[in-house]
Design brief:
This protein is α/β, with parallel strands linked by helices. About 35% of the residues lie in helices and about 25% in strands. Helix 1 runs parallel beside helix 3 and helix 10 crosses helix 14. The protein starts with 5 loop residues before the first strand and ends with a helix. Bound molecules: ligand PMT. The site of ligand PMT has 27 residues, from helix 10, helix 12 and strand 16.
Length: about 400
Amino acid sequence: MLKDKTIIVGVTGGIAAYKVVDVVSRLKKQRANVEVIMTENATKFVSPLTFQTLAQNKVHVDMFKEPSNYDVEHISLAEKADLFLIAPATANIIGKIANGIADDLLTTTIMATKTKVILAPAMNTNMYLNPIVQKNIDFLKDLGYEFIEPGTGMLACQVYGPGRMAEPVEIIEYIINSFYIKDLSGQKIVVTAGPTIEPLDPVRYISNHSSGKMGYKIAEEARNRGAQVVLISGPTSIEPPKGVEFVRVNTTIDMLKAVEKHFPTCQVLIKAAAPADYRPEKVSEVKIKKKDEHEDELNIKFIKNPDIAAHFGKIKKDQILVGFAAETDNLIGYAKEKLEKKNLDFIVANDITRSGAGFKGDTNIVTIIDRNGNITDYPLLDKSQVAKIILDKVKNLLDIRS
Ligand code: PMT
């Protein structure tokens, strides 16, 4: 995502500078070009060599050192930045920027840049809550500077409260998100994900292997592209993406009810979940006991669950309805049937017997079939790439309908 992007990381003098080492390492993993500017005070906490080794670029500290080439360093850095991150952002740097002070390489470069500047504050709670600091933050926010709010916790100064720098993962997510084109803003997208579970008795249930990964990636991509996202998920062990409305359900009927609540106000419904098609007719109130040795069978009667996609396919007006087909054979044949039967706008078929496709893994191999009869095969891709393809197709349909 960050390939060919130049991110300037301004490191200032706070203990959280050690966490920025991880931020730089993660930016490099995202294939960004990283230029680090450190204040003199920052070099007391972490050696420039650490950042230099990770960023694979020389670290800039001294405003007046002998130039290696004849451009003005703070201007050239300011111009080549696609994004400027200041982490940790101390009360001092926030105050300097707010007051137009440019007295070192970092502050002069910030002053000279026209790119987006994101600050990740980290300081003692009393300093952070100090009205002067808060006034400076509000003033900078009004000017378009962005802040990644600090967390609350036990700080290095042994005080509990707000002021702990956001975690590197959050900072990276924020940065990646800020490069997305918000082409789905104004759209409400409901995504279903994961399995459903149907109880047999208080200790047992039937379910399937869906991990929720496919649906969660769709929700994340839709959020990144500015959509208002509702993620309705059966039980999974993965963290729902931040910034989406998360609704946890158990059974297929629960899932139907949750979708029902949001369907009238949504523009798009994407059914990536694997809901159970059947449920036990009766759920035993007590644990079903093992039969005695003469009875080898346990018979449980199952009845059909509602087909959620088909239900909304029937009542949809101009909403876009996307379904999935998880098949073990006759992929295209069954997927086409489902496209018709459920009145979907397009269907994402995955042959779950193929290695790298379907349940649990981080990748999928899909074929998309639309209502014009187009059948497109995709190679093995990360589920996040599949999510992007699906939402590009949704965006096209939204554009055609508007
Ligand atoms: O969650 P992961 O581990 O990442 O795995 C991803 C996945 C394999 C679950 C996903 O890619 C997928 O294929 N989801 C659909 C699984 C499924 O239930 O397929 P189906 O062919 O049985 O159902 C067809 C469509 O009808 C699906 O959109 C399904 O959500 C929907 N359906 C099914 C049954 C039902 N009672 N109500 C429904 O709405």
